[in-house]
Design a protein that fits this description.
Strand content: under 5%
Distance between the termini: 16 Å
Shape: globular
Order of helices and strands: HHHHHHHH
Keywords: Membrane, Transmembrane, Transmembrane helix
Radius of gyration: 18 Å
Helix content: over 70%
Transmembrane segments: 12-30, 36-55, 67-88, 94-117, 129-148, 160-182
């Protein structure tokens, strides 16, 4: 498939921005509402919109590269918003700083190990990292099922359990996002 030019209508900037904006608003009110965090999340969403527009302007002639970078920024923003509930629950503890440090560390490792993550996702059987990624994926899904089942059956749903689940989802998204930084031309060579 040949790279094509992407016009603004087909760029998916507004749809992606809208989903990020809505997720940012939701994360501002979980586990309790915070108007300060809402303002911060609106500013973050607008900064992401600016990044999307810059990516489109720079890479509009290379559709594969553009959509790869758009997806990378989208996954990182989803990871940020999914991490907020647990970090807010731990805000009066040193564990909050461990959670923030872990998020930054996983994001940094993801960027540095992008090629390995791509190989692991594209052919998981031949890569230890690929097997690890898929095991973690299924563990997060299993944990999500347990959390949802527990919250449906109890009269006292746990915000911490939901926060841990969303945090783990965010870490998984952050980790796999590094594979999207690989240039599509280099993907063909693998």
């Amino acid at each position: 498939m040949v790279d094509q030019a992407v016009n603004f209508k087909d760029s998916k900037i507004l749809k992606t921005f809208f989903s990020i904006f809505i997720l940012g608003m939701i994360s501002s009110f979980v586990p309790q509402k915070s108007y300060t965090l809402l303002v911060v999340n609106i500013i973050v969403s607008l900064m992401i919109l600016i990044i999307f527009i810059i990516l489109w302007r720079v890479h509009s002639r290379r559709s594969k590269r553009y959509f790869s970078l758009l997806s990378f920024v989208m996954l990182l923003s989803f990871s940020y918003y999914f991490s907020i509930p647990l970090i807010r629950l731990l805000s009066n503890s040193y564990l909050m700083w461990i959670g923030i440090g872990l998020w930054i560390g996983i994001t940094t490792c993801s960027i540095m190990l992008g090629k390995s993550i791509f190989v692991g996702l594209s052919n998981p059987i031949k890569s230890k990292l690929g097997i690890y990624i898929f095991v973690m994926f299924f563990l997060v899904i299993g944990l999500g099922k347990v959390v949802v089942s527990y919250n449906y059956t109890t009269h006292n749903p746990s915000a911490v359990a939901v926060g841990i689940f969303t945090y783990l989802c965010g870490m998984l998204l952050s980790f796999i996002s590094g594979a999207l930084l690989i240039d599509p031309e280099k993907k063909k060579q693998k």
